[in-house]
Amino acid sequence: MPSTIYRLSGKASYYIVATLIILAWVLIGLKIRVSAGEAEVVEVYSAIHVHDSGLLWLVNQDNPLPSEYTPSNLVSHNGIFLQAPAHTAYNQMLAGMKADGIMGLQLASAYRPYEYQRNLFTVRVSELVAEGHSPDPAAILAAETLQPPGASEHQTGLALDVTVTGDLTLSFGETLAGIWLAENAHRFGFIIRYPYAKTEITQITYEPWHLRYVGLPHAVIIRDNNLTLEEYAGFISKAGAYIVWAEPHASRAYYLVIHSNTRPESLPNEVIAISSDRAGEGAGYIITLRGVYTTY
Prior knowledge:
The protein is α+β, with helices and mostly antiparallel strands and 296 residues long. The protein has nine helices and eleven strands. It is 33% helix and 20% strand. The strands form three sheets. Strands 1-8-9-11-10 form a five-stranded antiparallel beta sheet, with helices on both faces. A four-stranded antiparallel beta sheet has the order 4-5-7-6. Helix 4 (114-130) crosses helix 5 (135-142). The longest helix has 17 residues, at 114-130.
């Protein structure tokens, strides 16, 4: 089970602050003079971590995915497909719920191909037209609860719809499972993607059943600061860097999260993940490092 993560307090030591400054300096692309041996190490790690995990892609109507996009690491959960990291975390979360005596959570939907989403959206628009709406207003109204093709997170394989009754309704948020997820999903790398009172930002009404896997420590930062994924990259960029403790009772390990408008030319060996904040042009990068604080 993932460990609880805490934000570093304002009493950070000189050593943590110094480490933060040095790592940030590297990541924003400034040239630091290093020996030939150190340069070779950085080059090796840069090659290892160049792959964009996509976990933090912002996908919505303003940032659609191309129709041909399909995740390369989809795995099946009782016939429903999702990306492998999300699948592992989902099973860990189910175990956590069971340990707390909560059973019955079901995976209703995860990965949806572009064409599947297009069919869903077309059907919904047709239903609204049949109810008396004109086509264009019907499409706008449909998009309040169902994303158009390309704008759906389900195409990433990282979005999950969960239920205990088989239906996706607001009442899910009032069930034991819904309450538990609102309080604990972040510990496993999931966020409630369309939270209450954030519709103006997400442009999607409250959906307590819709989870998005963003991984750790990002889910914890998002929840602790009452953010949406739309706000996350800007929050990290404005903060300059964000530090959270990992496994506080077992070690002095910490995560450092930094946003960069361009992909760094080289990455230090502490980097454990790099993801653009959206797919396609105009993307920035969210870099996640993990280190261990030591005293001297």
